[in-house]
Amino acid sequence: MGRKLFCELCPLTYEISRQKCILSRHIRNFTSKEKFAKAKSPFPLPYQIFSHSSLMRRKLGTVDMVLQENKVFNLSLAVPLVNGVLIHPGEIFSFWNLVGNTTLAKGYKTGLAIKMGSPSQDVGGGLCQFTNLIHWMVLHTPLTVIERHQHDQLDLFPDFKRKVPFGLGTSIVYNYFDYQFQNNTTATYQIVIYQTEENLCGEIRSDQSQPYQYKIYTVNEFFSKEEDGIYRNGEVILEKIDTYFNVCIERTILQKNHAKVTYDTTGLKILQ
After folding, report:
1. Which of 9, 38, 69, 183 suits 93 as a labelling partner, its CA being 20 to 30 A distant?
2. Distance from CA of residue 171 to its chain's centroid?
């Protein structure tokens, strides 16, 4: 067994390490010359580029549904802080810059979180669904993702009404695990976010039409049995399509998955 990191010694050393990371990010943001998106408009920009919705209450293995309800509440606090934000040319969208710290004092509840590769609980938990939605929409635009974190290539929960290819999720921790993208185009973009009774819904809008569409899908997906467990494999493909000629002009491998499955695999087709 390897030597433990300082943050792994005890809860106190973990908190010291966490506060150090938070302070470092504050200093980095304060001294940065980058311009972060802050301005909002209650009026939607004229062109809808892409829209998506995700179910807020999902059955995630044996996770207590109370944590799901708390997540829905946490989202209701965070959504107004992002809804309507404009990302002008050259600006950077930073999730934590807009939402801020998710504390009990602000009304956030204990929701589902992932810690050390396992389901856990934390105040403000569940907001990764928010950045998952934003990331999926951003992938359908020419906007450039500049910071994204993942859950260490782990397949944590069985599929439940999956709409988005596996492996495109995000991991966020205030404020040092952020989700950021930059607008390197000449157009202004806008994120519109709202909740219905069942879904978290979003749109990316712009003041200009977009000459390309983006198609994202998975190929060569399968489960394999390996020495230390079952793994989920596959490649996520992104195609850039010219909307005028309806032809693919660029095809790239967005991500390669080789994720260890952490749930009961009974019923799955597994290659030996």
Report:
1. 69
2. 6
User: Based on the number of CB atoms within 10 Å of its own CB, is 22 exposed (0-12), middle (13-18) or buried (19 or more)?
Assistant: middle
How confident is the model at residue 2, as a pLDDT? Answer: 63
Neighbours of 100 (CB within 10 A): 12
CA dist., res. 232 & res. 230, Å (int): 7
d(CA 158, CA 212): 33
**Element (H or E) spanning 12, and its range?**
helix 11-31
The stretch 191-213 carries a mean pLDDT of 97
Q: Which residues contact 246 (CB under 8 A, 6 or more apart)?
A: none
Give the 3-state secondary structure of residue 221.
strand
Sign of CA dihedral 251, 188, 182, 168: negative
User: Are the CB atoms for 75 and 129 separated by under 8 Å?
Assistant: yes
First-to-last CA distance in the chain? 29
- Tell me the two tokens of residue 22: 């938070």
- Answer yes or no: are the C-beta atoms of 191 and 156 closer than 8 Å: no
Q: How many CB atoms lie within 10 A of CB 30?
A: 7
What is the bridge-based pairing of β-strands 85-87 and 229-242? unpaired
Q: Tokens 């930059």, residue?
A: 182
Q: Using one digit for the tens of pLDDT, what is the confidence trace for 228-242?
A: 999 999 999 999 999
